[in-house]
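2.7 Reproducibility. Because tokenized structures are sensitive to small changes in the input, we list the exact sequence used for PHD finger protein ALFIN-LIKE, including any N-terminal residues retained from the expression construct. No trimming or masking was applied before prediction.
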Amino acid sequence: MEVGSISPAPRTVEEIFKDYSGRRAAIVRALTADVDSFYAQCDPEKENLCLYGHPNESWEVNLPAEEVPPELPEPALGINFARDGMNRKDWLSLVAVHSDSWLLSVAFYLGARLNRNERHALRMQLQSIDFRKRLFSMINDLPTVFEVVTDRRQSREKAGMDSGSKSKLSTKRSSDGQIKNNSKTVDEGYGEDDDEHSETLCGTCGGNYNADEFWIGCDICERWFHGKCVKITPAKAENIKQYKCPSCSSKKGRQ
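Resulting structure tokens (single pass, no recycling of outputs):
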């Protein structure tokens, strides 16, 4: 299979999005359903290897393209070298983040030519930035590869997670101090959990709880916050044994 292959001449936002979706599906499969095969192919003893996703939803681990500059932007180089030096799950998450970056770079590389092609096809006098906005909007409706990989990891490990975690995706402390397990994957949805948290407000912005957003609770003041408001991601939250919100952290510093 040709490294970094392009689907036949994408000419519209929809065609580029189809190309993106195929490549994304391939990488998601490599890092989830086919993860054992992917892991085995990333031998640290081999040369610099890259993970490629193709528009037909197939993936491969291969050397980078020989031509300079390459036909398409290149994915992260040498992913195999870090394989044995990191925890397997952390390594897969790192590959996922770099893969997201590569997918976006390919999509917008193809989108650079949209202005001429799609304007001619639709006979519309629009600027290329409008097409890029449409393309990004369509891409943004899909979860990133990193989100898919880490959600899969969280669902597998929820039975062994620290009972002190205050993530909305994992646990909630009731008024009597007991821990309620609310861990659910994105596909399972939140159901009754939506009603339970419907009156919860973010301690920073005052926004209402939304099951589609990541939240984290302070172990000191027991207020809840949007992860984005306190700059905490699901990946960071996994490594926090006791979370202190910015307000509680600053209070301790003044004492």
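The chain has two domains: 13-153, 201-254.
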